Amino acid sequence: MAWQDETPFEAIALQFALSEPQVIALMRARLKTRSFRVWRMRVRGRATKHQSKQLSKDLVHTHQASTAAVGQALNDFDNEEFPLPPSQLTLDSLR
User: Fold this and answer.
1) What is the SS3 string spanning 6-74?
2) How far apart are CA 11 and CA 9, in angstroms?
3) DSSP code of 4?
4) In the predicted structure, residue 59 carries a pLDDT above the cut 90
5) Where do the domains of the chain lie?
6) How far out from the chain centre does Cα 44 lie?
7) Nearest one of 7, 5, 10, 1 to 40, comparing CA atoms
8) Quick one: DSSP state of residue 3?
9) Helix, strand or coil, per DSSP, at residue 80
10) Which residues, in sequence order, are CB contacts of 72 under 8 Å at separation 6+?
11) How does 29-50 read in b/e, with b if 16+ C-beta sit within 10 Å?
């Protein structure tokens, strides 16, 4: 699970009761030196390995998407032509 980029450290902690430093120590002990360095470079600061960073990234993306949707709705509203409802009034009846 630690090797996968999409699995957050929090999920590993829930399933195996290992904290992030314990996972790092385990990976250091089990992997070759070069493999460990490559893995550490890949996961250090990665949003998908830290649920808190992933949530904040998702919130920003959701906010941007909702803001864009509101902006598009306003543009559609401004460009829409509203037909007048049918009326009994005519030019002749107003004279």
Assistant:
1) CCCHHHHHHHHCCCHHHHHHHHHHHCCHHHHHHHHHHHCCCHHHCHHHHHHHHHHHHHHHHHHHHHHHH
2) 5
3) S
4) no
5) 1-63
6) 19
7) 5
8) S
9) coil
10) none
11) eebeeeeeeebeeebeeeeebb
pLDDT for position 46:
73
- Whole-model pTM? 0.51
Over its C-alpha atoms, the chain yields an Rg (Å, rounded) of: 28
User: For residues 28 and 35, what is the distance between their CA atoms, to the nearest angstrom?
Assistant: 9
> What is the DSSP-derived secondary structure letter of residue 88?
S
Report the SS3 class of residue 45. Answer: coil
Distance of CA 87 to the CA centre of its chain: 50
pLDDT in tens, 2-45: 888 888 888 899 999 999 899 999 999 999 999 999 988 888 87
Residue 46 identity: R
